[in-house]
Amino acid sequence: MNPGFARADNSLIARWWWTIDRWTLAALLLLVAIGAIMTMAATPPVAEKLGLDPFHFVRRHFSLLPVAVAIMLGVSLLDLSGVRRLAAAVLVISVALLAATFLVGAEIKGARRWINLPGFSLQPSEFVKPSFAVICAWLFALQRRRTGTPGDLIALLVYGIVVGLLLLQPDIGMALVVSVIWGAQYFLSGLRILWIFLIGGGGVFAFAGAYFVFPHVQSRINRFLDPQSGDTYQVARSMEAFTNGGLAGRGPGEGRVKTHLPDAHSDFIFAVAGEEFGLIACLIIVVLFGFVVLRGFARLLSENNLFALLATAGLLVQFGVQALINMGSTLHILPTKGMTLPFISYGGSSLLALALGMGFMLALTRKRYGPGEGA
Amino acid sequence: MATRVGDILTRVPGRLTLDGTAKEAIETARNRIAFGGAVFALAFTVIVVRLFDVTVFQEPREAQPPRVAQTQRPEMERADIVDRNGALLATSLVQASLYANPRQVLDPAETAAKLAQTLPGINERDLAQRLAGERSFVWVRRNLTPRQQDAVIRLGLPGVHFQREERRVYPHGELTGHIVGFTDIDKNGLMGAEQAFDESLKSRNEPVQLSIDIRAQHVLREEVAAAMKEFGAIGGAAMLMDVETGEMHAMVSLPDFDPNVRAEASPENRFNRLTLGTYEPGSAFKTFTAAMTLDYGTGNIGTAYDATRPISISRFRIDDYKPQRRVMNMSEVFMHSSNIGSVRMAESVGRDRQREFLRRVGLLQAPQFELPEIGGPQFPAQWREINMMTISFGHGISVSPLALAASTSAIVNGGIYRAPTILRRTPGERVAGERVISQRTSEQMRRLMRLVVDKGTAKSANVPGYLVGGKTGTAEKIVNGAYKKDARISSFVGAFPMNSPKFLVYMMLDEPKGNKSTYGYATAGWVVAPSIQRIVQRIAALYGIEPVDETAPTVRDQVFVNVAVR
Predict the structure, then answer these.
(1) What is the rounded distance in angstroms from the CA atom of residue A179 to the CA atom of residue A186?
(2) How far is residue B380's CA from residue B274's CA, in Å, rounded to a whole number?
(3) Residues of A in contact with B41 (CB under 8 A)
(4) How far is Cα of residue B237 from the mean position of the Cα atoms in its chain?
(5) For residue B49, what is the nearest residue in chain A, using CA coordinates?
(6) Is A191 on the interface with B (CB under 8 A)?
(7) Contact residues on chain B for A146, CB-CB shorter than 8 A
(8) Residue B43's CB: how many other CB atoms inside 10 A?
């Protein structure tokens, strides 16, 4: 592929082309393309069940795809301070909207997560995640610069506000992802090992203790984590789908699981992929996710800018954890949890927010010379 | 080394502080990034392994059985009784009974009027009076239909309530009346299977499965009823029994009764002729005389017996029904059902051995059977010479048809006696039994019984391809201690197919009368054998028993008897 840009070309686009991580970009675009195919496979039965035109979701997804790609590419053009400013703006707006859901939000399946706009409903919490990752990274990096700014404390404060709002919605899955992002960034920015064990171990111990000792806590958590079903119906169906798919799948459109599961187009899309396209397609998806995350981590090993390192790590953690939790619960190695598979699942807010996040990530991992700008 | 440099630099305040601190933090972060990357790599590996596990290493479940809503069997006081294929023979239905609490009834007159309007047959004035009384419990109507219950609920009357009650229902009515029996109002079994399996019906919440096949039961009942009608018989009975397992596939005794309305059933109708009734078997008993002679080795199929003259002993005279007045061999004696020849055979065996043999084949004691209505045999306490003689052709002894069937079954099945049963056996189960005659005797007896249908008295029982074999019996009935002329029990006991018997089939008619088509004869060969033919035809079709090629050398070899027919 000949980019048509000379190395010496110093225009914005040319500079972008030579500095962007093209492998990661290719992997992300491939995921977006697979997501488009999966949307065509998985959403028609769901739309029909809701009494909509079978291609309702397909049309919506396809109308958002160019927007998402544009956001991702556009954001990736930004430099570090541009990233930070955009993230700050998005975080402020989305946290405000998050708070607004309690006033004007639409209640869906027992939780207020959505804001209805004309022709579109927005899930602000999706946009919180990437912007939160960038801002916390900046705050942690600020503390390490010893400029006297209490970055860690502010980061803790921001974390408290965001998680508090998410828990109130309630959206435990999102709260968990945000916590993992924050914890990972704190860990990377030099949290003492002792504290890691104290905090981590204490949390796990308290959680496990409460879970196993008190039956009512246990059942409450079970139902909390898995609000749609009190039984294992969804997971059993999902496992069946993988088994029936086998190596090469039943063939496009031949799947059955999508007609049985209410969330086949979002939480259980991986099972649809497994049934219709088989193990090979699933492996391709896993490898693409693994490639993006691990390549990102590998590249961070030579990153000189702490803010860029922490922000990228936070974004990759969000991306990876979300993918792992989704695939893990579809494969019945984690409890069922409503979480989208990045770029593959249907979901407007999720798609745009991920495009934003990956745009940040691409911008942050562009080749810079020297430690980059300070402050 | 970079850390060292960083350490050094951090000590220098001012110019290098920013950079140095950041560098140190960067180093830590990079080290931990490697750790984080490893965790992610591990997690993705787990996903990949799991993917292989669920897609490739598990059996595909293409034919996933449809999900069926698990309906809890309602807790019933009494379990169901079903036939061998699961058809309901007895079940409990929950019904509502309507009662009133007069103290809660606001307006007795209105309540009574509305109830009388809704439920036909209620005496309005009587009910109004009772509702106006001081008691707190008054039955209004027992066992309402769901529709009636709904109608009463819709009336919205205060003070009327429903009591849950169970009612025993017998879907097949008289078809299985004698077999299933019935219960009393407190649901204690009083007859048939209801009494026999009372304990397990009460304690286990799973059905009792009988060996009866309701379809075969229907076939037999239809044929017995038709024959009864044709020959003006006062009663009749038939049964179909698996000779290998002892399972009863059908047991019909007519007249019968509907256990759903048992109050209307007369004792005569409740009487089970197969199990409780005992009858002189007549010539059908010659089977045992021949078997005994063969088994003791005192004669063989070719042995000649002198039947030229009637036998006179004390004041009795024993003669043949259709005297041949000649010397006959055993197969001829059996085929023509010669009384004189049978007496000669019994004489060759002897009195004691005859009694011993009959005891051995299970004819001198009541058969072991689950149903409580069991009749034991009647036979002379003093087994004299004359008793030996009459018993050799089935007189002077009475046994139940059930006992006769079980013992005949042992004669044809290779010589093993198995207690008859009304409970279904597990398919393929080897049922233990007791050897009562040798294989060889059984094989010879099958030839003789086939001969009776092929060329003897029961020719009209023949069904091409099914090798029916058996023995007819026509005995005069004993009424008030004396033989009654023109009142007979005509019966046939046999099995098919005779080269390798599967089913024993028995039928009897009580006091059949000859008609034009039988030239006035009411003997078994005329009145019962044709029914046997139809029963075998229908059962063979029902059970999908394939016909055998009677001309095939192996089959001919199995049933052939060299006998000249006159």
Answers:
(1) 10
(2) 22
(3) 290, 294
(4) 15
(5) A283
(6) no
(7) 17-18, 21
(8) 20
- Average pLDDT rounded to a whole number, residues A178-195: 85
Question: Which positions in chain A touch B18 (Cβ < 8 Å)?
Answer: 145-147, 374
Is B338 an annotated catalytic residue? no
With contacts defined as CB-CB under 8 Å, which chain A residues touch B26?
303-306, 309
* Residue B2 in this model has a pLDDT that exceeds 50: no
What are the contacts of B426-434 at 24+ separation with CB within 8 A? B429/B245, B431/B244, B431/B245, B431/B246, B433/B246
What separation in angstroms does the CA of B311 have from each of A17, B168, B290, B390? 128, 58, 19, 11
CATH of domain B217-559: 3.40.710.10
Give the domain B81-208 fold.
Penicillin-binding protein 2a (Domain 2) (3.90.1310)
Substitution target from B54, B61, B70 for chain A, most A beta carbons within 10 A: B54
Chain A nearest-CA residue for B28: A190
- Nearest alpha-carbon partner for B343 in B407, B404, B283: B283
CB nearest B55 (choices: A279, A286, A301): A279
Q: Look at residue A4 and tell me whether its pLDDT is greater than 70.
A: no
Which residues lie below 8 Å from residue B407, measured CB to CB, with a gap of 6+? B288, B361, B362, B363, B417
A97 in contact with B, Cβ within 8 Å: no
DSSP B364: S
Provide the pLDDT confidence category of residue B27 given band limits of 50, 70 and 90: confident
Share of chain B above pLDDT 90, in %: 42
- Please give the mean pLDDT across all residues of chain B: 86
Those residues with Cβ within 8 angstroms of residue A57's Cβ, 6 or more apart along the chain or in another chain: A39, A43, A44, A46, A47, A265, A346
What is the rounded average pLDDT of the residues A120-133?
86
pTM assigned to the model: 0.55
Q: Which of B283, B331, B442, B490 is catalytic?
A: B283
Instruction: Please give the pLDDT value at position B122.
Output: 85
**Per-range mean pLDDT, top range of B61-75, B303-317, B550-564:** B303-317
Tell me if B81-208 shares its fold with B217-559.
no
Please give the angle made by the CA atoms of B74, B77 and B80, to the nearest 5 degrees.
75
Q: Taking the domains of chain B in order of start, what are their residue ranges? A: 2-56, 81-208, 217-559
